[in-house]
Design a protein that fits this description.
The protein is an alpha+beta fold. The protein contains nine helices and eight strands.
Length: 259
């Protein structure tokens, strides 16, 4: 299969070069994973700020926060649910054969897996279905992590801690393997100082989309999409697309600034 170089930059050492493979509608954008980012490209995307120098963008601590205030358990639960949701996880709280509490994403996973309604009985039936598929047992007072994929039709017990709860409560954390955790645009702009176009590209990459599809969907030229990608590398101090996507996945756990 013939390869045509799309490098339209001035004659500098190629790296992170985007090439075209194939012809016509079968063309795909490929990223050279082995090269390092040249200073010449970096100079085209100057950035004084990076993840290592974000003090000027860090939100201030709320002055009205009362350190002596008694914590709100309901609020803490909502925060935990939100953090788990950011990484594609749901939480189910069980006691005596009943679902005491389930987060929004946990409910969505159970309904998707079992094609069920939202009644407590059917939700508990969906939990049993997942546990049985994993060949696992959920001891009273335990916390268990189950990884499940609706596309692949598999569920596995990843980790389990017993005697976590002093009562008859058990917790199941459901990891959705089909999810693509993505950072919020606000977090990306706060951490890295991305422009609107760079933020949109970063979110699309975190969703698992490839460069060619992103360029076509946004009607961008190969030169423009390559320029945005090079700027992402500079501002995040990464050198490969896989490294960038991994970083975006870690940032996905952060809520929007101010929340």
């Amino acid at each position: 299969m013939a390869r045509r170089n799309w490098n339209a930059l001035p004659p500098i050492k190629p790296c992170h070069s985007i090439e075209v493979v194939g012809e016509g509608n079968d063309e795909m954008l490929n990223l050279n994973q082995s090269a390092t980012l040249p200073g010449a490209i970096a100079s085209l995307h100057p950035c004084r700020e990076s993840i290592f120098n974000i003090s000027n963008r860090a939100p201030a601590i709320r002055p009205d926060a009362d350190p002596g205030k008694k914590p709100d358990l309901g609020e803490q639960r909502d925060v935990l649910h939100a953090v788990l949701a950011r990484i594609g996880c749901g939480q189910v709280l069980l006691k005596r054969g009943c679902v005491l509490d389930v987060s929004a994403i946990g409910r969505a996973i159970l309904e998707r897996e079992g094609n069920l309604t939202t009644s407590p009985e059917t939700l508990y039936g969906a939990v049993k279905q997942l546990v049985n598929r994993a060949g696992a047992q959920i001891p009273v007072g335990s916390t268990s992590w189950l990884a499940t994929s609706f596309k692949e039709g598999v569920t596995s017990l990843v980790s389990q801690m017993v005697n976590v709860w002093t009562d008859e409560t058990s917790t199941i954390i459901l990891l959705d393997l089909d999810a693509h955790p993505e950072p919020t645009p606000q977090a990306l702009r706060c951490l890295f100082g991305f422009t609107a176009a760079e933020t949109q590209l970063a979110v699309e990459l975190a969703r698992g989309h490839n460069l060619l599809d992103i360029a076509r969907a946004r009607r961008l030229s190969r030169t423009t999409i390559r320029s945005h990608l090079a700027s992402l590398f500079v501002k995040t101090q990464t050198r490969r697309q896989a490294e960038l996507v991994a970083l975006l996945g870690r940032v996905a756990v952060l809520p929007s600034p101010g929340n």
